[in-house]
Amino acid sequence: MFRVKRPGEQPSKKLRVPRPIWIILILALIFGLLVTKYCHTQLNRYLEVKNIEIESLSTTLAQIYFEIENKADFFIRRKVVVRLYSGNLEIGSKMITAKLKENHTTGFVVTINFIKLLKEDETIDEISVKFYD
Q1: Average pLDDT value for residue range 5-26
Q2: How does pLDDT run across 113-123, given as a tens digit for each residue?
C-alpha cells in the first residue's frame, strides 16, 4: 500500500514498550493463570457426584446415568468427563458441559460409543465421572 506524504507531517516513530512494563504484564498473566486454576479446584468442594448407574448396555454403546449435586449458592458450569473401563482398558469416554443451578441436584444421561465392540464375556468394570480442569 502506498502512503502519500503530506507537507509538514513528521514521520511517525515506533515507540518501544519499556522492559518493566513487559515484566509486569508477564507476572500478571502468570498470577491470573494460577488464580484461575486454584478457583477451579475449589469448585470441586461444592460439587458431589451421586448415583452412577448403567441405564442400558449393548455391544456398541452404553447409556450412563449420574447425578451432580451443587451445594453452592451460585450457578456453576463445569466440564465433566465420563469414562468406561473393562479391566485396565478404557473402552469409551465422553465429555459434556454440566450447567448446575444453585443448591440443586441435576441428573444426566450420557450415551457413550465404545472404541471396540464388547464381547459377550466382557463387562464394564469401572465407571469414572470426573470434572475436567
Answers
A1: 79
A2: 998 888 888 88
SS3 127: strand
Q: Which domains does the chain have, with CATH numbers?
A: 47-132 (2.60.40.10)
Chain-centroid distance of CA 84 in Å reads: 18
The reported pTM is 0.71
User: How many whole angstroms separate alpha carbon 64 and alpha carbon 72?
Assistant: 25
Mean pLDDT across 20-45: 91
> What is the C-alpha separation between 122 and 107, in angstroms, rounded?
27
Beta strand extents in the chain (DSSP E only): 47-57, 61-70, 76-86, 89-100, 104-113, 126-132
